[in-house]
Amino acid sequence: MRKVKVVLPATVTNLGPGLNSLALALALHVTVEITERSDDIFTVETSGEGAGYYSTGLRHPVVLGLSYIFQKLERAPLGLTIRADSKIPPASGLGSEAAFLIAGVIAANNLFGNPFNREAITTLAAEVCQRPDHAVTAIHGGLTSSLFDGDALLYRRLPIQAQQLIVIVPQIEHYEPRPRPERVLMSDAQHNLACLPLVIDALRLGDLTLLGHVLNDQLIAPAQTAAIPGCDHVITVAKHNGASAVTFSGNGPALIAFAPANHRLLADGMIDAFADADVKARAWVVPLDTQGVVISMAQS
Q1: CB atoms closer than 10 angstroms to residue 71
Q2: What does pTM read for this prediction?
Q3: For 107, how many CA atoms within 13 A lie in the half-sphere containing its CB?
Q4: pLDDT (tens digit per residue) in 239-290
Q5: Domain 2-158+288-299 has CATH 3.30.230.10
Q6: Which CATH superfamily does the domain covering 164-287 fall into?
C-alpha cells in the first residue's frame, strides 16, 4: 500500500497593497497523510485547529483536491484513509481551506507517480482553489507574486529577509469580510500601485522602517478595519509598542505584525488591546516559511 504525506504552510494573501497578487508563507502548517486501502472505503480523520469545521465526508477540501486530479487522470484508488491535522485556524484569512485543497491535489499526483511536474501541479492547484496567490505561495514558500493571464499561470518567487512575524486572530462570531467596492478613487489606486514596489524592496532588504511607511492598502483595508471591533485601537497599540507595520491576512480577521524585536510582548499587548473591545484573540509568533511544500512517500 502506498502512503503519501504532504505538509503545507499558511498563506498571507492580499499583503498590504498587493491585493490578490503579493503573498507570504508562514510556518503554521497543515499536514495531510493519505494511505491506500484494500477496500473501497474513504475515511477522513481530522485533528488540530478547527477539527470538525469541515465536512469529514466527500466534501472535505482534501477530498475535493484529490477528486480534481483523479478526474484529470481518469483514475482513482479503490479506497483511502485520510488524516488531516492543522495548525492553521480556519476562517481566519490564513489559507486553511486552500492548504487542504492543495494538499489533496499534490497527494493525488504523488499517489500515481507524479504524472504532472511541479509547474503543472502548481497551475492545477491554483485552478482548484481559484486563487493563484494561495497555491503558488503554499507550494513554493517565501514571498511570491502571481496572476492568471487567461489560462497561463504567471508567478515569481521573490527574495525576502528571514524574520519572525506576529499573527493575531480575533475570535469574532459570524465574522464576514466586507464586500470589496466596485469603484475606487483614482488616488487610492495610485497609492497602492506606488507602494507595491517599495513593499517588495523593503521585504527584500529587511527594511522594516520603509515597510512601516508603505505596507498599507487604501482600497479594501478601511472596510476590513470597520468589520473588526477594536481593530484601529489594536493597530495603534501595536505601533506604539514597537511594531513597524500591521496589515490584514487575506480577508481577515487575522492581523500580521512586523517588528524588529520583542515579538511575544507585542503579541500579548495586541491581545490585551482586543480585550479592551471585549474581543478574545489568540496570537502566534512564527518565522516565514521559505521551503513551501514538503512531500514524503512510503510503500508498505
Answers
A1: 11
A2: 0.94
A3: 34
A4: 999 999 999 999 999 999 999 999 999 999 999 999 999 999 999 999 999 9
A5: yes
A6: GHMP kinase, C-terminal domain (3.30.70.890)
